Here is the input.
Amino acid sequence: MNLLTASLKDLAQAVQSKKVSAREVTEKFLGQSEKWNKQLNAYITMNDKALEAASAVDQKLAKGEKVGPLAGVPMAIKDMLCTKGLRTTAGSKILHNFIPPYSSTVVNRLEGAGAITLGKANQDEFAMGSSNETSFFGIARNPWNLDYVPGGSSGGSAAAVAAGMATASIGTDTGGSIRQPASFCGVVGVKPTYGRVSRYGIVSFASSLDQAGPFSRTVADSALILETICGRDERDMTTASEPVPAWSSSIRKDLKGLKAGMPKEYFSDKLEPETRKAVEKAVDAVKKAGAEVVEVSIPLTEMAVPIYYLVATSEASSNLARYDGVRFGHRADFSKNPAESLAEFYCRTRGEGFGSEVKRRIILGTYALSSGYYDAYYKKACQVRRLLRQQFLDAFAKCDVLISPVTTSPAFKIGDRISDPLQMYLNDIYTTSANLVGIPGMSVPAGLSSSGLPIGVQLLAAHFQEQHLFNVGSVIEEAMNIKELPSVLQ
Amino acid sequence: MSYNNWEAVIGLEIHAQLLTESKMFSPDSTAFGGSDNENTDPVSLGLPGALPVLNKRAVEFAVRTGLSLNCAIREKSVFARKNYFYPDLPKGYQISQFDEPICEKGYVEYFLDGEIRRVSIERAHLEEDAGKSLHTGDFTLINLNRAGVPLLEIVSGPDMRTPAEAAEYARTVRRILRYLEVCDGNLEEGSLRCDCNVSVRKKGENKLGTKVELKNINSFRFVEKAIEYEIQRQIECKESGEPIVQETRLYDSTKNRTFSMRSKEEAHDYRYFPDPDLLPLKVEAEFLQKVRSELPELPLTRAQRFQTAFGLPAYDSFVLTAEKDLAEYFEQVAEVSKNAKAASNWVMTDLLRELNEAKLDVAKSPIAAAQLGELIAMIDSKEISGKMAKDVFMEMWKTSKPPKEIVKTKGMAQITDSSAIEKIVNDVLAQNGQAVADYRGGKTKLFGFFVGQVMKASKGQANPETVNQILTDKLKG
Here is the structure.
């Protein structure tokens, strides 16, 4: 068994049946990480307690005690999630020295199920970016081609799984930050329904859009991780009381009776031919499994990116106010050159602590919420957001699942788009709607481009209907049967 | 108060800290006076990833208050973020309510100068308190124990015209809050804060003048004084043609003046927007009904009942209902004594005098209400005289013993047996032959002398009425 490429399910089984110890597994992944992280930069901080945690799992097993379903599974955690005693930076200088006194609910649930936190994954600063290029800790690279971006903002989480530096990982998705890097790195990534996963202890970017979710090698593995992290949390009022089904053991590959919709606005001229072909291949597989394919329409699709950049930046401008250098995190050095006013204290601290993309979005959001502009921007965006939601609900009255591309093209080269924010924002054209509407979405690998870069297919379902994603995703996964591995694993 | 041709317009914003055990949005304790930054979990500190969870008790307190202020309770209200930077505001925004507050459109009535007056309540909304900053030399120290404590901000209409009205309105609101047991109303400790909006205009004008907000007022007396100063200052400005600047001014009680804190040009754009971490707050009809059914009788209603049911004068009824505990104490005294008038006199003069002197709350009175009632009943049944009762009262205050026991052990019972009194009278008349002769000769003023002698001989225990009667008979000759 190749530990580095094994599925989570197989690995967890091997550990539980003591074919391999959790410590051996962790050592193996730490070795791979040490070997490649200098080049890939998928991790910002490694967890120096990982081996200890793995040994604790082994001890439990030795004593015949019950262990959780993720026992001994090495995972990368995006640096947006607070980990008690382990530095959490959100990819920003302003948190370069922040060691949280508490863990996020997601991390508590994962570790409670036996998962081993290997380290904290690289990301765009405060999850603001689509390429991992805005991280204060340097660019993470795509394991399939080191000259290419891994996608973002959860670039490190996707790259770590693709490169065998973790069996699975956690990312956050505010406008596509799980699905797009999953697509770029050839792994499965799921953004669950808004309210499925507690945001407690996860650095907020845009509170009404943020959801954490898994990256994994297989669809079933993502389902298993979600079963662990989903569910009501009394510390997050926006979590749903909806029961969490046993998704992973309920996957059905017979799609008879299922209706799959192709939203026509997602297949415009902007879509590159290779990506279009990959999606069409996936649609064929779904048809072959018994599903009926229908065309649907979401007329407001082209409004999704503008609405997204108003809502997300408005919320972010407020969410990021707490990074002021008063209680934690970076503070400008005032020892030689004291601040003459409170305003100067803030300006210098925040001016040094935030990168330019974060500043751009804070300014945008501040403007959109300002008196005199609120109605025209923030309020209007919220109104159109409601209309968009209605259009999706209408579409889901006609079908169970939407199949679409994740992005217009595969991963782009490092540096290609970073100087053109608008071009970068348009990268989110197919992914932001799911966040605005609150529905679950998945990216599942659908093949490689002629230049050897992965292409993913996006699946969307109605609120709380994740099972459809896992069923359809598994069908595509099986049909595509991708055997290629990135060079770092060959 | 008269300001010649000027009229003052006053509105109040009262911030009441709610007496919940935990904070508005976190399980942290709200206890006052803990060690610095002791009550600070990730939510109170505004740590990355911390999220607010609404305290249901605070909602209940807000509804209770809103109903008592005759407000409409919104079925759906919304928490909004008020964004501004300050070191003791950990998140960089305060969670408050903006265009959809939980309570709105109410009124409160109070009694002043012999009449009932009414002030409209525009709104009462829930929000969280900020921490405290302590500026010391080159440093500012921050204590976040208070950060996140629930506040109810009660905003009146611009309905008051004099400082006395404003102060009485504020006292009335405080009284209601204390009756409802939702706020302890301590202005000095800051659990009740009162900001005053003041403007002046020519009499007869409808347009409001430029308003000034007064802050930092920590007693009702200062509410009155600060507003009075501010009205005079604004009138002087108007009369000398100086423009009034819309600004916030702080009251300095030692100098009895207000001074500018910040002007409108420096005012913030708070960028209010609905807090996406909190769902809209829904108050269900069933909950509303439950809270309504549990409301206590409010001070004004109670005062009016005291007037009609007990025949008390208005003034007495307001003194006795100023605090819920006092009103309850009085009612018990009245019930046990079956003499409301006397109960009112004893509570208002003797009891309040001793309580004030000892700086005690009525709840801590060493004399239980039932025992004071018993004492009054003993006077009415002539077991003791009113004069003796005063001594018994003081003994009760010192020992907390029941009046009957004190009277018994001290041998203080009144002598009502007329044959016993007749014997004392005979002795007194026998010992004062000359005075008896003088009295019978027309010096009737000497009657008091005889009464005094009899009382003295009986050690004050003889029933004065019986003494009078027997003396009158005997002196006739």
Residues 220-239 of chain B form the longest helix (20 residues). The CA atoms of residues 116 and 431 of chain B lie 62 Å apart.
